[in-house]
Write a structure and sequence with these properties.
The complex is a heterodimer of chains A (about 325) and B (about 325).
Chain A: H1 12-29, E1 31-33, H2 34-41, H3 45-55, E2 70-73, E3 77-81, H4 94-111, H5 118-130, E4 135-137, H6 145-154, E5 156-162, E6 171-183, E7 186-193, E8 198-203, E9 207-216, E10 239-245, E11 262-263, E12 269-275, H7 278-287, E13 293-296, H8 303-317
Antiparallel strand pairs in A: 1-3, 2-3, 5-6, 5-9, 6-7, 7-8, 10-12, 10-13, 11-12
Helix pairs in contact in A: 4-5, 7-8
Chain B: H1 7-20, H2 27-33, H3 41-57, E1 63-66, E2 73-76, H4 79-82, H5 91-103, E3 104-106, H6 114-117, E4 131-133, H7 138-148, E5 152-156, E6 159-171, E7 174-181, E8 190-194, E9 203-204, H8 218-221, E10 240-246, H9 248-258, E11 263-266, E12 272-278, H10 281-290, E13 295-299, H11 301-321
Parallel strand pairs in B: 3-4
Antiparallel strand pairs in B: 1-2, 5-6, 5-9, 6-7, 7-8, 10-12, 10-13, 11-12
Classes of the chains: A alpha+beta (about 325), B alpha+beta (about 325).
Chain lengths: ~325, ~325
């Protein structure tokens, strides 16, 4: 995951926060190897040494040697003296307090709020001080989540029955699970799929059955587009469609739209949307109401009608 | 001192000097004792204000105090406002929180450094994430305002809102603020705001200005379906009882949306029958049509006909265009 890598240009405030966290830790332990310290705080070793050397020039007026922070960096270790004032960490920032509340609440949603568990009792203690009880996180836990997570953790291939999105799309596949992560509120399995011969992202709620195969997976690395926060990773059928629809329906798609929409002379808005396939697009257009249509590409203009015809078949069969 | 010191060095020195100060330091003195500030008074003031804002944004409040003499105000960092209070966590509790922070992350790693402040000796940074939650700049501030009972102001759907926040809820991929909007037509009505649709900066007022109702659960208040008649809203002319059948592909999501109370039957093929009332018929048709062939409206007949008519119109229209 690339989440903890700091952006290329880190602002001074972020650097200060990280430096104070490192110094508080050093004040407690006195001495640490650079490797351990870098790993613990998500630095690469060179920038860690840079920050420590800078900190060694800081201190109290008049900045004579006896009033500077005492940090000695040698080849692979750092030794700290007299950082008493920094021994205790600073308060949580609003972002940190929120992250703590959201993470802890999400874990409770996933694991079930077991009374007396360390997480539950920690939340009780912190609840008032940090306002944790005012944040709640809801994550639906799909049936096969635990099994798939375990297979991904141990690197075991599994066979899944996958429902797909379209009727009649049901498939059975041998997949090599890599990660199971909730993105945009839903759980997805990222796996190398034997059927597709490529990486695929499966919605865990659409996996109807899991069979453990007891076979180890081949070592592979996940393609970069599977990293990050977004659930949508495209795939073979993915492309961009420009669709026109009534502005009042914009809230239904605003999360799918990256650029600001433009406007047609008839008052409708036009938005560019990345779509995984024609069926998905057809459903989206139906949802957007009678005035919704594909402007471009022309070969997708029939998407809504195709889904409408499929749906009508159901009604002909009768209830 | 040279003004060529890096800004990080300057603000680190500033923190140390203000934290160590036995009395509030006037700006003039800060400019002299803290390395790296420009000497011209205007430039010094500007640089200090910028540093003060940076520190505040990073959770380090500078206390501004009235002092005698020409300087009028002085600055320092009060230890009780700087240090994280002793949270009284056992090592197991601190480890459980650290684990949660590593397993459930906010987009972009926002706030992740809290893990270092909990004082666990071995944060398990190698744990694979379980969930990545969207993060928005306003969330930290909103949570703090809710905790401190400080009303918040922001623009939403083109109007300025003044909200007493009661809670934040993550549901179906979005963060929601639940609270009372003082500017709403019916004052005192509960409102929900999708945080990613807030159109301006969020500004928090003074703390302690409102009370949160006893036992209030924001998540419970948020239970609503777009097309269901709302209990708190204006009275619906009339609600229609509908029954639908949903395929196994969409069954779980439909139940999550409508609530388990709507479930009437679960069939062997994994499909479910759901019954519920509909207030806003157009919103209901939009939802049903968007489910494509995964859903069928069974009753009442006029709603079933309404779906068929709309589907037929779409399939016909495309044929006419050719």
């Amino acid at each position: 995951m690339t989440l903890e890598r700091p952006p290329a240009a880190v602002d001074a405030g972020t650097r200060l926060r990280r430096l104070l966290a490192v110094l508080a830790y050093l004040a407690r332990v006195g001495e640490s190897s650079l490797v351990d310290l870098a790993a613990r705080f998500g630095f690469d070793e060179r920038s860690l040494v840079g920050e420590l050397e800078l900190a060694a020039c800081c201190g109290l007026p008049p900045y004579t040697p006896d009033t500077l922070l005492e940090l000695i960096v040698d080849d692979d270790r750092v030794i700290a003296y007299g950082l008493d004032a920094l021994r205790r960490p600073p308060r949580l920032t609003p972002d940190e307090g929120f992250a703590l509340a959201a993470s802890a609440r999400a874990m409770l949603a996933l694991e079930g709020a077991e009374a007396g568990s360390p997480l539950a009792s920690a939340l009780d203690k912190l609840g008032f001080a940090l306002g944790l009880e005012r944040v709640s996180v809801e994550l639906d836990v799909p049936e096969h989540l635990a099994e798939l997570r375990e297979a991904a953790a141990t690197g075991e291939a599994v066979e899944i029955d996958y429902l797909g999105t379209k009727r009649g799309d049901e498939t059975t596949r041998r997949v090599e699970p890599y990660a199971v992560v909730a993105r945009e509120g839903r759980f997805y399995l990222d796996a190398f799929c034997g059927l597709a011969g490529d990486w695929r992202r499966f919605q865990v709620a659409r996996i109807a059955r899991v069979r453990r195969l007891g076979e180890p997976v081949a070592p592979r690395s996940l393609p970069v587009e599977f990293d990050g926060t977004r659930a949508f990773v495209g795939g073979a059928g993915a492309r961009t469609a420009h669709i026109a629809f009534d502005e009042s329906r914009f809230v239904l798609v605003d999360r799918l739209v990256a650029a600001p929409p433009s406007r047609l002379p008839d008052g409708r808005v036009v938005a560019a949307i990345e779509v995984a396939g024609e069926y998905f697009l057809g459903r989206l257009l139906l949802r957007l109401g009678p005035s919704a249509e594909v402007i471009d590409p022309p070969e997708l203009r029939d998407a809504a009608a195709a889904v409408a015809r499929r749906a009508l078949t159901r009604y002909r069969e009768g209830p | 001192m040279s003004t060529r010191l890096s800004r990080l060095e300057r603000i680190t020195n500033l923190v140390l000097a203000l934290l160590n100060a036995s009395h509030p330091l006037p700006l003039r003195e800060i400019g002299i004792v803290v390395g790296g500030y420009p000497t011209a008074p205007g430039a010094l003031r500007q640089a200090f204000e910028r540093d003060k804002r940076t520190l505040r944004d990073n959770g380090i409040p500078i206390s501004v105090e009235r002092i005698g003499g020409d300087d009028q105000v002085g600055y320092r960092i009060l230890p009780e406002q700087y240090y994280l209070p002793d949270l009284g966590l056992t090592p197991q509790e601190a480890a459980a929180l650290s684990f949660a922070l590593v397993a459930v992350r906010l987009e972009g790693g926002v706030g992740h450094e809290a893990v270092h402040k909990l004082g666990t000796d071995r944060p398990r940074s190698i744990v694979a994430p379980v969930a990545i939650l969207p993060s928005l700049p306003a969330l930290g501030l909103l949570q703090q305002a809710i905790r401190d009972r400080a009303p918040v102001t922001f623009a939403y759907h083109g109007r300025q809102r003044h909200v007493d926040g009661y809670g934040l809820v993550f549901r179906a991929g979005s963060w929601y603020l639940v609270g009372r909007d003082a500017a709403a037509a019916e004052t005192g009505a509960l409102r929900r705001f999708r945080v990613d649709r807030i159109e301006s900066e969020v500004v928090a007022g003074s703390p302690g200005l409102y009370e949160r109702p006893e036992g209030f659960e924001a998540a419970e208040e948020l239970r609503y379906v777009p097309f269901q008649p709302s209990a708190s809203g204006p009275a619906e002319p009339e609600a229609t009882e509908v029954e639908i059948s949903v395929d196994t592909r969409e069954a779980a999501e439909a139940i999550a949306l409508l609530g388990a109370g709507a479930l009437r039957r679960r069939d062997d093929d994994g499909s479910v029958r759901l019954a519920f009332s509909v207030g806003d018929e157009e919103a209901f048709f939009s939802w049903v049509l968007g489910l494509g062939d995964a859903v069928e409206v069974l009753a009442p007949p006029e709603m079933r006909r309404g779906v068929i008519r709309r589907l037929a119109a779409v399939s016909r229209r495309t044929e006419e265009q050719r």
